[in-house]
Design a protein that fits this description.
Layout: H1 6-10, H2 12-33, E1 37-45, E2 49-57, E3 63-72, H3 78-93, H4 108-113, E4 126-130, H5 137-150, H6 166-184, E5 210-211, E6 219-221, E7 239-241, E8 248-249, H7 256-259, H8 267-278, H9 303-306, H10 310-319, H11 330-353, E9 363-365, E10 369-371, H12 415-425
Antiparallel strand pairs: 1-2, 2-3, 3-4, 5-8, 6-7, 9-10
Helix pairs in contact: 6-8, 6-11, 8-10
Protein name: Protein kinase domain-containing protein
InterPro entries: Kinase-like_dom_sf
Length: about 450
């Protein structure tokens, strides 16, 4: 962990969040003293808010509910207060939505003392929401980068995956699509309570047209124990979109200059952005900013990216079409993704059920890996008279470099590969430590006094 320098501690970008941190701790001190809640750490901070990690304690003092508290960093700046109030309002509109971050109500005394989840307060508002135990999508991508850096120091059989498998990517993309559907077709459920979940749908709900900035810093991955696996979250926990401070209701009367985004067209904007997060191609009859993920006569895709499911790459290119009219709508996007996931799962199950005897040399066999063909050792018992031996083959060793090399294009990934990625990245907490942890409760070293200090 790299400690911040004195110069960094003097900067306004730390001093303002530090004031917000101290203000919140002062308001909640009485409830910490009576063992109702326990402060853990700062999860992150920016120009508008600071997010802290808390446990709501059980009567015996052990951790119960985990929450994230978002507070304004500058109580003197009205725009910051207004952004947090606006975010609380949007959170309540999306109450119950499975793939949008949810508010969490606390003891009434705490709610009142700290103006929690109250967009109408005259005081300084705070926002209490569920904590996503595996951090942001950005953090997941950083961890993948770390793995490639230290894997060579580990025995091959315990090295971490260095890429996200195709079927896991499809699962994450479905979560993002459901989140966009939840914003465009909000449930308007009045309840605000943990684990009250409505799977987002376009059916039977009048559409709305909110649009907001989305990126992988604002997409969060749940702890698997908080999101039990189901038909749509078999290979990855629930992924949710958060942070609605910049969200606005789309107005069809706006033009490019008024919304300050030439590509903003209500839900079509969010569809563009989820395509951009996943990243004029030949064979397409529309212009797209996602052309780099597709084969092109003048552009050579990196070998590993060639093995990413072409169907996923084509869909991303569609989501990033120049014209919003060429992007798939939320309903069509959901249908395409669900159908593709179902087909891939069926293919993987069918391949795993096939007996594989004497395959061709160096063929990737789903469920078995790269297996040598005739003349080599397959790991299977030799067949008896008439064919199959009648007993199952021993489990094959994991193929060499499977942690690093994707399954070749056109072949379906086996379930064990997805399970390995799940175990490597979703079972254990891999949040990065707060480099400012030792400084939040300290006196500010020196006030900023020059433009260069902040």
């Amino acid at each position: 962990m790299v400690k911040p320098t004195t110069k960094e501690l003097r900067k306004r970008r730390f001093q303002r969040p530090q004031k917000g941190w101290k203000g919140l701790r002062a308001v909640l001190k009485a409830f910490e003293d009576e063992k109702y809640m326990k402060y853990n750490a700062v999860l992150g901070f920016g120009g508008f808010g600071i997010v802290t990690d808390w446990d709501i304690l059980k009567p015996d003092g052990s951790p119960g509910l985990s929450i994230a508290m978002k507070s304004a960093v500058d109580k003197e700046k009205q725009s910051t207060i207004d952004a947090l109030k606006r975010e609380i309002w949007w959170h309540k509109r999306f109450t119950g939505s499975e793939h949008l971050m949810q508010l969490v109500d606390l003891d009434e005394r705490v709610m009142k003392a700290a103006n929690i989840n109250d967009e109408n307060t005259d005081g300084l508002p705070n926002l209490s929401m569920e904590k996503m135990g595996r951090g942001s999508l950005y953090l997941l991508l950083r961890r993948l980068g770390y793995s490639s850096g230290f894997n060579h120091e580990l025995p091959e059989d315990i090295r971490l995956m260095e890429y996200i498998p195709n079927r896991t990517l499809w699962s994450i993309f479905l979560c993002l699509t459901r989140a966009v559907i939840g914003m465009a077709y909000p449930s308007h459920d009045p309840l605000s309570r943990r684990n009250y979940r409505i799977r987002e749908t376009t059916q039977g709900i009048p559409p709305g047209y909110p649009t907001s900035e989305l990126n992988n810093l604002l997409v969060f991955v749940a702890d698997p124990k908080d999101s039990p696996p189901d038909d749509e979250h078999r290979w990855a926990p629930i992924v949710k979109i958060a942070d609605y401070g910049c969200m606005v209701e789309w107005n069809d009367a706006w033009d490019e200059n008024q919304c300050n985004n030439p590509y903003a067209m209500g839900p079509a904007t969010n569809i563009y952005q989820i395509g951009q997060m996943h990243r004029r191609a030949n064979g397409l009859d529309f212009r797209t900013y996602g052309w780099r993920v597709l084969p092109d006569a003048n552009y050579q895709i990196d070998e590993d990216w060639v093995n990413v499911d072409l169907g996923l790459r084509e869909l991303i290119a569609g989501c990033m079409a120049d014209s919003h009219l060429d992007r798939p709508g939320p309903e069509l996007l959901e249908l395409i993704i669900r159908n593709r996931i179902a087909w891939l799962d069926q293919q993987a199950a069918a391949e795993a059920a096939k007996p594989v005897l004497n395959p061709a040399a160096n063929v990737f066999v789903p469920g078995q890996g790269f297996v040598p063909g005739p003349g080599g050792v397959t790991g299977f018992p030799p067949p008896g008279p008439g064919g199959v031996t009648g007993f199952p083959p021993p489990p094959p060793p994991r193929p060499r470099d499977s942690y690093r090399k994707r399954v070749p294009h056109g072949q379906v990934e086996p379930d064990w590969l997805l399970q390995k990625f799940f175990n490597d990245y979703f079972i254990e907490d891999w949040a990065e430590p707060d480099v400012y942890a030792d400084y939040w409760d300290k006196k500010t070293l020196t006030p900023y006094d020059k433009p260069g200090d902040y």
